[in-house]
């Protein structure tokens, strides 16, 4: 293995996932998978110090600062904890502390899964609240913290200055309520309470914070002018007396056995808690001892965070059924004998495709091992052949759609099997849900439950029927299908508003295979209207940035179908905008023939705004750097795209340089 290359790959991968987790609150992998990447990188850097780098993700805190919120310098660096994953590592830490300190005491706490914040009080009054950010600079979320009931706005002891650190989180109940509302309004459904809590706290509208019922636990005292403490446990007890909700159920220990016993107890009860935790923290209790030990550039030497492995259970595959997606893709779903895992009862798990089933040799009747990936999504890890009954049946994907009966077809050189039917209700329902979603036409109030109800009552058969709902206003109110009068009127207003969208949203909503938001924007910036798109040629499309043969053929196939031509005509008759606003507002062609790639956070504009400007001047925006790239517009925390551009000798632009090109 090329060690240097592997280290560089790990750094880029971890930086990418840091951005998704800390800055976008939208992680793509589980905490466990992330921890394994970090662990591998840390070990390689220790074994091969010649490849060490000061900007490695192992040497800094993951988060950066969002541009929209005011930056605030931290008084005390807000750093992460060293992660450990085994009993041996916990004992090693405890023995090391005993060796260095003599007779230390330890505190073991639950590691609440939320967003770390620092609270500042002057003369007993809350005056500021700051996120972790990059550990040196955070972002002010003071106005949002005022909306959290459990955050004390004043405390009885009026110290000149007090600073505490806590974790803002969302309870399981509040998470379920918020997600239910998101579903009803067609908004994004969050995968974890942590993501929703983090996204909520960084909202620019404090009313959203009030509505979503966030909570806080304070787990550390950072500064207390005018009052001295000898131990961490003493400071937590004092903070509790001041009205702070402190680390729930923290325990004081002396020996390694006691520490491990506490960790085990927390692990056994974690799924019964009303909030999520992602580990247990072991800290040296004495504040004087902490000063002696000090900190490294990234972690304190006096604490570690133990990460629990994903819980795994045995259960039985009672059946395998098939779901049909909006593009006609058939996805097998295991119906499991219900089993409680990671705090909830699991009775279903996706099996992805026929190849997945075959490679793991999963049969109906099998005993299987399941876990929740990241404690969220149920997955079947493997079957246990030695427990297989004689009646176990191999599963083969159907050659007919289970919904409409049309033949199914396996993609050439692919693993996906699709329904070939043009009138499949399952495809239609998911297609309509997607059309109304936030990334497409953004019709608030037309979520999955509303679409299902309107389809079952016969009001919607395809997306064009959405624009006829206003004709049935009184009926809808009387029947209460999507709610009472206010809900119906809000939905009709949202439908009417969506008619004004630029055609990139319409293109996205049409659900053309392999065409997402970015591709739709490129099409909208290169073609004046839907008519031009319907008459587009292979040569015109293949010349566009990042357009490959498969995508081009999918687009041509979509617009060649008579049923799609008729659908677009019905949408046009309903008053849906068919013209490209980007093309209409094009100023000149100074960027004609130029391809831009955007990376990092720009100081004064979003990527969407920058994309629109580039398109208005005839340029194209691509999602990846290649030899065809003309410029890379780079902001703060630019990642691997910037590195690749530098390697290829592509011109790098700052926002200021980009603006000069517009003058």
Automatic annotation (TrEMBL):
Function of the protein: DNA ligase that catalyzes the formation of phosphodiester linkages between 5'-phosphoryl and 3'-hydroxyl groups in double-stranded DNA using NAD as a coenzyme and as the energy source for the reaction. It is essential for DNA replication and repair of damaged DNA.
GO molecular function, one term: DNA binding
Gene that this polypeptide is encoded by: ligA
Domain BRCT: 586-663
Pfam family, one: HHH_2
Cofactor: Mg(2+); Mn(2+)
Positions annotated to bind NAD(+): 31-35, 80-81, 109, 132, 167, 283, 307
Enzyme Commission no: 6.5.1.2
GO biological process, one term: DNA repair
Regions that span the bilayer: none
Name this polypeptide is given: DNA ligase
Residues annotated as catalytic: 111
KW Transport (keyword) present: no
UniProt cross-references to Gene3D superfamilies, sorted A to Z: 5' to 3' exonuclease, C-terminal subdomain (1.10.150.20), 6.20.10.30, BRCT domain (3.40.50.10190), DNA ligase/mRNA capping enzyme (3.30.470.30), Helix hairpin bin (1.10.287.610), Nucleic acid-binding proteins (2.40.50.140)
GO cellular component terms attached to this protein's record: cytosol
Family statement: Belongs to the NAD-dependent DNA ligase family. LigA subfamily.
Amino-acid positions noted as binding Zn(2+) in the UniProt annotation, renumbered to this chain: 401, 404, 419, 424
Entry-linked InterPro entries: BRCT_dom, BRCT_dom_sf, DisA/LigA_HHH, DNA_ligase, DNA_ligase_CS, DNAligase_adenylation, DNAligase_N, Hlx-hairpin-Hlx_DNA-bd_motif
Reaction(s) the record says it catalyses: NAD(+) + (deoxyribonucleotide)n-3'-hydroxyl + 5'-phospho-(deoxyribonucleotide)m = (deoxyribonucleotide)n+m + AMP + beta-nicotinamide D-nucleotide
Key words, A-Z: DNA damage, DNA repair, DNA replication, Ligase, Magnesium, Manganese, Metal-binding, NAD, Zinc
SUPFAM superfamilies the UniProt entry points to: BRCT domain, DNA ligase/mRNA capping enzyme, catalytic domain, Nucleic acid-binding proteins, RuvA domain 2-like
Source organism, top-level taxon: Bacteria
Enzyme class, broadest EC rank: ligase
Organism: Acetivibrio clariflavus (strain DSM 19732 / NBRC 101661 / EBR45) (Clostridium clariflavum)
């Amino acid at each position: 293995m090329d060690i240097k290359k592997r280290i560089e790959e790990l750094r880029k991968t971890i930086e990418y996932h840091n951005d998704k987790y800390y800055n976008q609150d939208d992680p793509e992998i589980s905490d466990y998978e992330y921890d394994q990447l970090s662990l591998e990188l840390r070990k390689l850097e220790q074994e091969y110090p010649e490849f060490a780098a000061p900007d490695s993700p192992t040497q800094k805190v993951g988060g950066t600062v969002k541009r929209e919120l005011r930056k605030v310098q931290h008084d005390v660096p807000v750093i992460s904890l060293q992660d450990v994953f085994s009993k041996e590592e916990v004992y090693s830490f405890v023995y090391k502390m005993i060796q260095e300190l003599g007779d230390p005491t330890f505190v073991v706490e639950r590691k609440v899964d939320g967003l770390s914040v620092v609270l500042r009080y002057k003369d007993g009054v809350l005056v500021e609240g700051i996120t972790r950010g990059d550990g040196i600079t955070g972002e002010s979320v003071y106005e949002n913290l005022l909306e959290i009931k459990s955050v004390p706005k004043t405390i009885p002891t009026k110290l000149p200055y007090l600073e505490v650190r806590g974790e803002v989180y969302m309870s399981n109940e509040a998470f379920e309520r918020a997600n239910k509302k998101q579903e009803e309004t067609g908004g994004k459904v969050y995968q974890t309470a942590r993501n929703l809590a983090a996204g909520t706290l960084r909202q620019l509208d404090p009313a959203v914070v009030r509505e979503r019922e966030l909570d806080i636990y304070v787990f550390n005292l950072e500064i207390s002018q005018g009052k001295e403490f000898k131990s961490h446990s003493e400071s937590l007890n004092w903070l509790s007396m001041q009205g702070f909700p402190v680390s729930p159920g923290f325990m004081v220990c002396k020996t390694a056995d006691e520490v491990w016993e506490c960790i085990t107890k927390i692990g056994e009860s974690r799924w019964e808690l009303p909030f999520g935790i992602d580990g247990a923290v072991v800290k040296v209790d004495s504040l004087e001892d902490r000063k002696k030990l000090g900190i490294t550039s990234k972690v304190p030497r006096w604490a570690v965070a133990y990460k629990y492995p994903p819980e795994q259970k045995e259960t039985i595959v009672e059946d395998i059924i098939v779901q049909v997606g909006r593009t006609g893709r058939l996805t097998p779903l295991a119906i499991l004998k219900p089993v409680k895992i990671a705090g909830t009862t699991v009775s279903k798990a996706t099996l992805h495709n026929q190849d997945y089933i075959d490679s793991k040799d999963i049969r109906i009747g099998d005993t299987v091992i399941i876990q929740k990936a990241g404690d969220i999504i149920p997955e079947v890890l493997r079957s246990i052949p030695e427990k297989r009954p004689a009646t176990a049946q191999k599963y083969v994907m159907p050659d007919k759609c289970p919904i409409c009966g049309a033949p199914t077809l396996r993609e050439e050189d692919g693993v996906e099997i699709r329904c070939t039917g043009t009138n499949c209700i399952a495809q239609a329902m998911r297609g309509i849900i997607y059309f109304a979603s936030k990334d497409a036409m953004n019709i608030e109030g037309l979520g999955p439950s509303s679409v299902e109800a309107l389809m079952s009552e016969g009001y919607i058969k395809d997306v064009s029927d959405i624009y006829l709902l206003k004709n049935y206003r009184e009926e809808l109110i009387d029947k209460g299908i999507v709610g009472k009068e206010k809900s119906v009127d809000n939905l009709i207003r949202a439908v009417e508003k969506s008619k004004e969208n630029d055609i990139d949203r319409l293109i996205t909503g049409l659900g053309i295979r392999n065409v997402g938001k970015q591709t739709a924007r490129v099409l909208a910036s290169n073609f004046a209207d839907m008519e031009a798109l319907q008459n587009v040629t292979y040569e015109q499309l293949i010349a566009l940035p990042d357009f490959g043969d498969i995508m081009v053929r999918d687009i041509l196939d979509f617009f060649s179908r008579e049923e799609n031509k008729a659908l677009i005509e019905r949408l046009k008759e309903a008053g849906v905008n068919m013209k490209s606003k980007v093309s209409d507002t094009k100023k000149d062609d100074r960027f004609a023939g130029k391809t831009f790639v955007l990376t990092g956070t720009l100081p004064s504009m979003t990527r969407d705004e920058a994309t629109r400007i580039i398109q208005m001047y005839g340029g194209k925006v691509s999602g990846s750097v290649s030899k065809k790239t003309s410029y890379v517009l780079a902001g703060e925390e630019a990642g691997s795209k910037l590195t690749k551009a530098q390697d290829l000798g592509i011109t790098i632009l700052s926002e200021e340089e980009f603006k000069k090109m517009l003058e």
